[in-house]
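pls read this stuff:
=====
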Amino acid sequence: MSAVSSLIPRLSELFADFWTLMGVAALVTVMVGLMIIACRRPLSRMMRARDDARAVQASHVGDPLRLGGVAIFIGLMAGAAAGVWQDAALPALLILSAGPALLAGLGEDLGFCVSPLRRLAAAGVSAFLAVLMLGVWVSRADLPGLDPVMTIMPLAVLLTVALSGGFCHSTNLVDGMNGLATTVILSAAVGLMLLAQDAGDRDLALIAALLGAAMAGFLLLNWPFGTVFMGDAGSYGVGHVLIWIAILLAWRTPDIAVPALLLILFWPFADTFHSITRRVLRRAPVFEPDRMHLHQKMRRCIEIVLLGGTRRGLSNPLATLCLAPMIAMPVVAGVYLSQDPSAAWIALVIFGLLFAVTNVLVTRFACARRRRYRGVTARLTHAE
């Protein structure tokens, strides 16, 4: 608790003009989001029919537009355009490199059925563009056995592209509850902003701050009622910007531990790694959607334990609320262990184990309560 509370004074020490620019990014995001909601009918005519509510992984109510990512990027660009930069090309190149991932996601949002593999490939193209445009890649791991390999540039670039593309796809996978992906991205953006601020890297701190502000503005529209969704354009595009802030930070500030950055980006990586491991062990297709992500288990657990039935309109936002502290904990750890690679690696393993154990405990608790409920119902029926 003291670690979390001590972050508040650090937020107040942001560069003076940040708050105004963050206000611009948040306000523009909200305004564009409201316009999208208001123009639902004409926008729907431009889109192909979707049936998201019947998807196996669906946890929402109704059929909101999936164009929130457009609002987020417009808000981000508005804040960037209003800002004063030491390297004016940096925000432009970073946002521009997200183009392929953003467009592939937008195609899926508009109903053109862009497969997960094609979206992943587009995210890889965005990563390769970022390497070319920014001249940056993951050059170290702060791990003795891996660091020599990272000195081989072609291998390092290949790993960077895989890491970036995989993270974009992972961000899409955690976009399953109202406000969930937004909370994940917002908390990570704050963590990266604090590290960049401590390193004296004003440009990266500002990009992270603007991204966090745009996400905060979108959160007002997405949680608790889900009036508009971030969509695949948002999850892939924003995921690209987020991980490249982290890659740039590692490149420009050698003192920052790579595992600390992975802690800040922990939740999407952990969810994807757990899902792939689970599907491989069960010999299920890796890219086939299911309802076994932690956020989906948490929603059903809430319905079984607290609500007594399927009430997605209430269990959906409550699941995000329950998971928010768990999402924030690795971020806080990453900020405070940024100068200690060994401790950060240990913390990463511990949080990974806790994530796996939580999956098991939530499932067993919900199943036990369901059996107990059915037993009580059977006894009451028999008594009648």
Remarks:
- Residues 2-383 form one domain.
- The chain has a mean pLDDT of 88.
- The two ends are 51 Å apart (CA to CA).
- The chain has one domain: 2-383.
